[in-house]
Structures are given as structure tokens and as C-alpha cells.
Amino acid sequence: MKEKLLISREDINKRIEELGRKISEDYLGKEPILICILKGAVYFAIDLTRHLTIPFIIDFMSISKYSGSSSGVVRITKDLDVDIYGKDVIVIEDIVDTGLTLGYLLRNLKVRGPSSLKVCTLLDCPSRRIVDISVDYRGFEIPDVFVVGYGLDYRERYRNLLDIVVLEE
Amino acid sequence: MDVKIITVSREFGCNGTEVAEKLAKSLKFLLVNKSYLNEAMVKYGLSDEQLESLEESSLQPFNETRKRYIELMNKVILDLAKERSIVLLGRGGQFLFKGHPSAFHIKLIGSIENRVKAVMSQYKLDKVSALKLISEQDRRRDLYISKIFGGDWHDPSLYSLVINMDYFNISNVVKMIIRSIKLAERNGSEKIEVDHEILRDATGSVPHFAHSSEEEFAKLLDFYRIRWLYEPKTFILECDSEGNITSAFTPDFYLPDFDLYIELTTQRQRLVNYKNRKIKRLKELYPDVNIKMIYGKDYKNILRKFGLI
Fold first, then answer.
1. By the CB < 8 Å criterion, does B290 face chain A?
2. Which positions ≥6 away from A133 have C-beta within 8 Å?
3. Tens digit of pLDDT for each residue in B118-130?
4. Rounded to whole angstroms, how far apart are CA atoms B251 and B264?
């Protein structure tokens, strides 16, 4: 498969710095809990925290991935270690496309009674959306292309690419 | 499955309290009811008035303060369930533990005639007052669930078992629930496999999919616990002068929780154009209908994301 550059590492870094600044302004005087969704968002979440000037708590969450016919129903495979009740929560995603994963996660997190619940995603692909999700902090809006790199994978490969590239057949 | 949480929801006048008490006693589970929760909440320093606001039947308005107390109570219940096996009476347990792998949800219902009789005898009321009390309590429970969980507790798909109390006495209902739990525990893993070989829509019907991509899509929705119906409605787009339908369109899926129709188009471009025209016309004629088209390329990228192609 061919790789075609979509977003360069320079643009990614610049945008993450802007997002970090914006979140720091919006949460001034607060200590939000950042929930990084494994595994794709790890790279983004860590780099984002380097640009935060406010105190924060980071935690990780993972849910099972759809794998075809006999996969049962979605489950949380790694739950939070911290209690989010009454806290300001920001969910950090690598990409929001269908909204299915995030929709399930938000339903689950809402029940735990956070005082606020927002979504920060590096990439937003609204043309692939099935379930409507509102994104509060967005790095880049991308067209309906299959992307990898900077945490995003195809069968566990390409995560460590510094740029975001389109994978073409 | 290993059942550790039993939630009991009940229409007013269905002896839910007695069923929950006997069930907890038989299974040696902790009964989490109003008095247990009030005691637990006292530890948080809540006054009598604040405790009263936790009640499903409370007359207090759903302001932020009341909601906060209820959220705190929900957290207490969730924490409790991590440590103990519980029978939870009311409090929106069917929503609080919705989809929980160890939860078994029961709903008790009954005819209005029998519920009136039960309430008349329990509260020493005349028929009119009993009826009034039932409708008031039902209304407050509806309000409680919709304000706190944003759901409809009458939806039968929320429950593992719905029992009509008109047909059984309390002791037999308890036996029936225990037996059902044992069956679910024994067959849990097998049952899941079978359920996913036979796809069922939100009403439990088995649809006949026209295309394998539609079946795959239904599996994806099932995985993310999104209720769906397959081709539930046909929209008339055009009629001739005699009123015969000359053009109509039936979207592939309807997602009731999102009030959204979905059309999958994984076919050739010529057919896609044809469908696009129909959807455009549908939107003109039915502007309130929410419809989303998923094109072949979108669908392929979705499958690729899950590593399926």
C-alpha cells in the first residue's frame, strides 16, 4: 500500500500547541481529568499534556474493538483508576469518525456523574459519522480517507510515523 | 454470566418490595432499598429533607441540588455493587447497570384492576383514591427515570425478565426469578454465540437482509449496543393521477434511539446516483426525517479501521 502525506509533523505539533493553549485557558483554575483512549490516542495525549499550563490528572481507558462475526458486545477492557464523579473530564481521542466507539464511551462516562464532559480529538472525520457526537476540541477535520501514523494504525502498524499519511491501495 | 446484581423495577401496586426482600433473603444478597440507602447517605451528612429528595416519588422539583444528591446516591450504589452481591429495588437500577455483564434486570407488571386491589388493601384506600395514587406514583417514576437517566423504563428490552404479577403469587415469582438466573448463568456463554449467529432487530424479529454488507452493518450496531430496525418504513415519493404509487424509497436501517434512518450504498456508481436522487426527493417531501447515506467508500474505510479488510 502507498503512503501519501496528509498532515506533516510540523503542522501536527503546531496545532497541538494551539489546542494545549486553548484547553489551558478554558480550564484555568481547574484540574481536569484527561482520559486517553488506548491505544491510538497515546501519542497525541502525551504531546498535548506537554503544552498544558494547568494542573491535570491523566488516566487511560480501553474498550474492546469490533472484530467481525463472533465478537459479542463492546466491553471496557481497561477501566479508569480515578473516580470522575464531580470532576471536569476531557476525553482524548485520536480520531472521531463513525462516533460508535466514542458514543458508547460517553454514555458510560456520563453515568459516573462528572461535572463536565468534553471531547478533544486530533482528527475529526464527520463524513463517516453514524452517531452524532459533538467535538469540543478538534485538531484537524479530514476528508473520508484512511489515515495512519501519529498513533493511528492499520493492523497495529504505522503507529510510530511522525506524520499522518493516507494509506492507499 | 455470573449474576451479582439483580435490579427489580416495578409498577406501583405489584408487590415489588416483598419480591425484592424474599429474593435477597433466598440468595443471601444484600437488599438495597430506600432504608438501606438512607442510612448509607446519612454518612454524607444529608438532612431528612435532602434524603427525601432522593425518592423516586418525591414531590421536590428536579433542580440541580436534587440531581446532585441523586447522582451521589447512584455513585454509592455503583460502589456498593463492586463489593457485594445486591438486589436493588427501584432507583433506576435497570439504567444504572444497563449492559453490566453481571446484572440481571427484572420488571414486575400487573393489570390496573389487580394493582388497584393491592393498593386498596395495603393502604386502606377506596377505589378512586387507590387509582389516583397509582397514576401519580407511575407518573413520578416516569419523571424520575427520564430526568435522571433520560430513558423510558417501560421499554421491555431493558429487562432480562418481565413478570406479570396477575398470574403468580410472590413465592412462585421468587422461585421463577432464581430459576431464570440459574439458567442464564449456565447458558450465558452459549447464548451469546447463538444470538450473534441469528441477528435480531430491536423488536426481536429476525430480518432477511438483501445484502451481506447490511448484515455486517447490523452486527456492528449490535456490538456497540445500538438498537436498530431493518427496513421498517417505506416513504412514498410519487403517485400517478389515480393514486397508484409510482416511486417509493425504503431506507435500510432505522436507529430509534437517534431517530435516524441509514441507507447503505455499497453498489456501483450508477445505482448510487439513482439512490441519491431518491433521497433528495425524500428530504424535500419529508423534511423532518433524518436520513444518512453511507457510501461504499465510507463503509470500506469503516471496515478497514476494524482491520476486517
1. no
2. A96, A99, A102, A103, A106, A119
3. 888 888 888 888 8
4. 8
DSSP one-letter code for B60: S
Of chain B, the percentage scoring pLDDT greater than 90 comes to 15
Question: What ipTM was predicted for this assembly?
Answer: 0.83
The distance of A51 to chain B (nearest Cα, Å) reads 29
Cβ under 8 Å to B: A residues 147-166: 154-155
Nearest-angstrom CA–CA distance, A4 and A23 = 31
Beta carbons of B5 and B23 less than 8 angstroms apart: no
Compute the Cα dihedral for A138, A142, A146, A148 and give only its sign: negative
Instruction: Report the pLDDT averaged over residues B82-102.
Output: 85
For the stretch B177-186, contacts whose Cβ atoms lie closer than 8 Å and that sit 24 or more positions apart, written own/partner, are B177/B6, B177/B19, B177/B23, B177/B106, B178/B23, B178/B26, B178/B27, B180/B104, B181/B3, B181/B6, B181/B104, B184/B1, B184/B3, B184/B104, B184/B160, B185/B1, B185/B2, B185/B3
- For chain B, the average pLDDT equals 82
A97 is catalytic: yes
Q: Which of A97, A136, A144, A163 is catalytic?
A: A97
Dihedral angle of Cα B1, A61, A111, B85, to the nearest 10 degrees: 30
Grid cell listed for B151 = 430513558
Looking at the complex, report in whole angstroms how far the Cα of residue B196 sits from the nearest Cα belonging to chain A.
6
Pick the range with the lowest mean pLDDT from A27-36, B60-69, B200-209: B60-69
Nearest C-alpha in A relative to B194: A70
What is the pTM (predicted TM-score) of this model? 0.58
